[in-house]
Amino acid sequence: MELIDHYAYNNKLRAVDPVYKAGLALMVLALCLLLNRPAVGLLAVCWMGLLSTAVAGLPIRVFGGVLFAEGSFLLLAVAGLAVSVGVGSADGVAGVGWTVQLGPLWLASSPASISTALRAGTRALGGAAAMNFLALTTPLVDLIELMRRLRVPAILIDIMTLMYRNIFVLLESLERMHTAQDTRLGYVNFRRGMASAGVLASRLFIDAYQRGQRLQTALSSRGFTSDLKVLPINYDSDWRIIVLGAAVAASLTSVWVLL
Amino acid sequence: MSPLVELESVRFRYPGQEEPALNDVSVSLVRGQKVAVMGRNGSGKSTLFLHCNGILKPESGTVRFDGHPISYRHRSLLALRQQVSIVFQNPDDQLFSASVAQDISFGPLNLGMTPEEARQRVQEAAELCGASDLLDRPTHALSGGEKARVALAGVLAMEPAIILADEVTASLDPWMRRQMFEIFERLVEQGKTVVLATHLAEVARNWADTLVVMDEGKVIAADAPGCIFSDEALMARTRLNEPWYTPAASVTG
To answer: What is the complex's ipTM, to 2 decimals?
Structure first.
């Protein structure tokens, strides 16, 4: 998560208005869902990779790495679509396709099920790539800002603001406490490790609660009334994103029509 | 010189505590002065600060700002907190936003400023605190010293008359600490009052115009640092260490 956060703050599209980036990503996601063909999903992955690396300047290793991690999970999920598993004899399994007997189990697959898996897998991968593009180029602060502009209720905005900030604060506490336990051999073996982790978790709850109270005091001192008023952030507009977005939409649609 | 913030016979107990956190405290914070507050951990320094801007309300006694007893009505408190600012010891307790610029803009916007005015205030405060180049950085990527400067900027953007800083220099390296004091110096030049809770005797002696000493919820001395450090009975009681490097200065007042 810290890696994604780091690149979200350090890429060439950082200053671009989040409305462009979110608009593009959501459009690609929608197209992947609507135009249900493997080629569309794969093309979407290529486009998002190109935008993330060539336009936003992210290392290809980062974009690829994140996508690979998601792809691995996806593979496990679609494997179930492609292959059916059963107990007993494979003889009773009807339909076209292939069956394999593995001791008491049988595995079965067919062109139809593989096609279904491929469609679902590429579609999901394309959508994931679109979301990765957004996540890797846009810090959460900017997404929250976008939601503020879209008139999402202030209470939700405030909760997101505080949660996002406190993730890092609590993560720091967690690391400090863990190191402190570790230096006193709190994780010397499994038993002690479980006990230490339990203490750590309960201590973190107390820590979060006390922090919340101190934050309340500090905010009150600065004139907090009902909601967390902050300045809107100024962004650059970027016509390239619109042009590229149109190109992406056109190519995805033509691939769907032509193939 | 007239007192800006004045506590008179203030008594306060935290809920569920037997011992009062403030026990009959009377102290004046004089306009335009540099004030150091010393005292052991738990002696009531933070509690004292929280009374100055009305976060805590005394059980008995009076808190005055600019000669008038403070009112604890909502609107009056907002006006008071614009004038009386607290910088907290741990910047992470104060910085609520992952965006530095947005965090600093919080106070000015609470005062009902327009976005343009607030933006101006953010720029000025950041510049004063040497945080101009931090405005676009995420809060969680800042170092401790940078966070401390941003926290201070967030308070200064409200242009308070008095800044109560609760051990803000405690965790800073010597260079950062020095920069912090340079900022305090500029604030005092602007006519503001700076109150600093500290454990450093050298700070109290060399920087402060007035030293307030607290012990077990009481203000046991408030005077020029020289007078306090030369009071042997007081030193024996409080164990505020003699500054080791200027022994000769201990007789001047």
So the answer is: 0.80
